[in-house]
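Structure representation.

___
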Amino acid sequence: MNFPAATSPTRRVFAERMTARAETDKEFVVFESDLAKSTYSYLFRDKHPDRYFNMGIAEIGTAASAAGMAAEGRNVIVCGYGVFITMRALEVIRSFICYPHLNVKFLSSHGGLTAAIDGVTHQATEDIAFMTTLPNMKVLVPADSAAAAAALDIALDTPGPVFSRLMRDPLFELYGPGETFRLGGSKVVRKGKDVTIATYGDIVFQSLAAADELAKQGIDAEVIDFYSLKPWDQATLAESLRKTGALVVAENHQKRNGFGYELAVWALQNNPVPAALIGLEDTFAESGNYQITLDKFGMSGARIAETTAALLKKK
C-alpha cells in the first residue's frame, strides 16, 4: 500500500465543501451543539453567520430544532460527534426526521476507533447499526478527501435524511480529484480472484494493507470500498463473489448488527460462501494510539490478513 498522506481529516474536508457550496446554494443552514472547532463547522459560521445556529451542548434539542426548520422547507446540516448524534438524539432522528422524511443531513465526526485517543465515550462504534436500521435514512462513509467532499454534495442532493460518518484524524488519499461517487455506489480499489474483502471508511486502508500481506502468501484479495452503506451496491458484491467465492467484511464498528451482518445475510440468501466478519467482538475498545488499538481489537491490516488466510483454509 502506497498512498499519499492526507493533510486534512474527512470531517474538515466535509465542512470545507459545506462552506464552499454555501456560496451558490443559499437554501441550506447549519446547526451544531457547541462543537464547532471539533467538527470544523466554524468554517461555515465565519463565512455565513446568519445561516449558522449553535444550540449549545444539547444534541436532542439540536436535532429537534433542525427538524422544525426542515419541516418549513429548508435543507439542514447537523454537525456533531457520532456517538452523541446517534445515541442522545436517536429518538428525535427516528420519529421527527426519518418518519416525516425531512431534509436533515448529518456531519458525524469521530466514527469508530478513529477517535481512539479520545476513549470509549467519544468512539462511535454502534452508529452504523443505529443509522442503517432507521427507515428513510441514507448512510455514507467516505475513506478520503475526494469521497468526503462528494458525500456533502450527495447528501444535499438526496431527498430526506442522510448520515455521513467521518474520521477524527487524516489518514491517506485514495482517490483523485476527478473521481465520481453516487448514492448506492462502491469502488473496487484492488482486483483479486481468491477472496472479497468488503470494507468502508478508514478500514479501506487497513484492508489494502492486508491485501499486500496476503499477496506474499500467494492469496489474491479483491478489496471493495462500500462508501455508500445504505443503499449499498449489491451488483458489485455479487459480481465479486461469483469470482472469488469467499467473503470477509472488515469494519471499524461493533461486529454485531454492523455492515457485516447485512452482507452475510445477503450472501446467505443469494450466494452462500465461506465468510468472516471483522469488528469489535461485543466489547468496548479503549483509549490509545489509533493503529495499536486497531491491532489489539483485530482490525489492523495484519489482523485482517490473519483472519482472511484462516478463512481460506476452510474454502
Notes: The chain has two domains: 10-165, 187-314.
